[in-house]
Design brief:
globular; alpha/beta; 52% helix; 5 helices; 18% strand; 5-stranded mixed sheet
């Protein structure tokens, strides 16, 4: 499975591609950051993020996209920018029919480090170790994008089984079997 992880942000949108399957060694394909200038207007910045994400999708052809779920922050302006960048990434993937999954920051930290309260340095160190890199990717947004992709690869099999079970349950409720006496 090849996954594009996206750590959304208006100024720095972390992107990273990881390939592999749960239970086996994973490989980093690419990592980077889509940057926009704080001096540009919001519309221009969103277009720049779209162009950057589209470039990554064209070049790396992921089977799935994992995006960090925006969580409530005290700074409304920051959360709005993050949400807008997140929506652009989801739109780019959805336009191509690529499945998108959202993961919370604590979910990603727990998957990669074992603790949902890990700090950025711990996430970077574990990403470095898990992908057998020489050094943690810089900036932290890039490492976070790789962590999202790793989390998704590891969680995807369980999530698929859960979705299948939920679909079977819904189907059973819609068309219950007739009982004969």
């Amino acid at each position: 499975m090849r996954v594009l992880g996206v750590d959304p942000g208006l100024t720095r949108c972390g992107v990273g591609v990881v390939e592999g399957v749960a239970g086996r060694a994973l490989t980093m394909v690419a990592v980077g950051v889509v940057r926009t200038s704080a001096d540009s207007g919001l519309g221009q910045r969103l277009v720049a993020i779209e162009q950057g994400i589209e470039q990554w999708l064209d070049e790396h052809r992921p089977e799935s996209v994992a995006v960090e779920r925006v969580f409530s922050q005290h700074n409304v302006r920051t959360v709005m920018g993050t949400a807008q960048a997140s929506a652009v990434a989801m739109l780019c993937a959805a336009r191509r029919g690529i499945p998108v999954t959202l993961h919370t920051p604590s979910e990603v930290k727990a998957a990669v480090t074992g603790s949902g309260r890990a700090d950025k340095a711990q996430v970077g160190a574990m990403v470095t170790r898990l992908l057998r890199l020489d050094a943690p990717p810089k900036p932290a947004d890039a490492a976070d994008a790789l962590a999202l992709a790793i989390c998704h690869i590891w969680r995807a099999p369980a999530m698929n089984r859960l979705q299948q079970a939920q679909a079977a349950h819904r189907q059973a409720q819609v068309s219950p079997r007739k009982v004969t006496r």
